[in-house]
Design goal:
binds calcium ion, about 40% helix, 12 strands, alpha/beta
Length: about 240
């Protein structure tokens, strides 16, 4: 069964033809798709009922993609793919730390979009819906429950996006070893064109801030200049 089968996808896109093409591809793959053309409509709709994934255009009438993503991230970790018309825009978006899980540039092929939607939903699907009793992974003050897609740091729940959760897992699997940005990119995105190493930097920065918020002075991720990152809790 496709990872998309029966999943609810919201397309927020003001170019109607483009939105219709995307919808047709996703529906053909088994998704239930809603399309909104105005940013303000999306803002309201997302507050009322959350889809399993959002394809979010950056430039929209009314509230733009930035505003929608910010608002959404204040209460939800639903996977978001941000769509922009300019590749140069992506660096700026990453700098804003919106918490989007992936970025796609126009023009794109609908097949490529479909592949990325599948990849994100496949991950989310595994976490949320595979039954069973896989034990929570404990690493000192960190507790990770993959089945529930939950993590706690010193007892405090961490609100992680799917990308941050995968990043954390990648680091945990190699404690004390330095992982390059390229290696981390491979692990946090199933399929993608590499946009920029800054993608990783941006996600790591967000992840570290969440650890710090949970317990000040406890950031367990070390940055190795010019190389990458490693998992090394203070005192370890
Ligand atoms: Ca647009």
């Amino acid at each position: 069964m496709s990872a998309i089968q029966g999943r609810r996808v919201l397309i927020v896109e003001d170019e109607r033809k483009l939105a219709a093409v995307l919808r047709d591809y996703l529906v053909a793959d088994g998704a239930e798709v809603d399309v909104l053309h105005h940013g303000d409509d999306a803002l309201v709709a997302l507050r009322q009922s959350q889809p399993d994934l959002v394809l979010l255009d950056l430039m929209l009438p009314g509230t733009d993609g930035l505003g929608i993503c910010r608002d959404l991230r204040s209460y939800s970790t639903v996977p978001v793919i941000m769509v922009t018309a300019r590749v140069e825009e992506i660096d700026r978006l990453l700098g804003l730390e919106l918490g989007a899980d992936d970025y796609i540039c126009k023009p794109f092929s609908p097949r490529e979009v479909l592949a990325r939607v599948r990849a994100l939903l496949r991950r989310a699907h595994v976490w949320q819906e595979v039954p069973g009793a896989a034990p929570a992974v404990a690493s000192g003050p960190l507790q990770v429950d993959e089945e529930r897609f939950e993590a706690r740091w010193h007892g405090q729940p961490l609100e992680l996006t799917p990308v941050e959760f995968r990043l954390l897992k990648a680091l945990l699997e190699r404690p004390g070893r330095v992982l390059s940005r390229a290696r981390l990119l491979e692990q946090i995105y199933l399929d993608h064109r590499v946009v920029s190493d800054r993608t990783v930097d941006s996600h790591v920065k967000n992840l570290r801030r969440k650890f710090e918020d949970a317990r000040p002075g406890s950031d367990p991720i070390r940055s190795i200049y010019g190389v990458g990152y490693k998992w090394e809790p203070p005192g370890a």
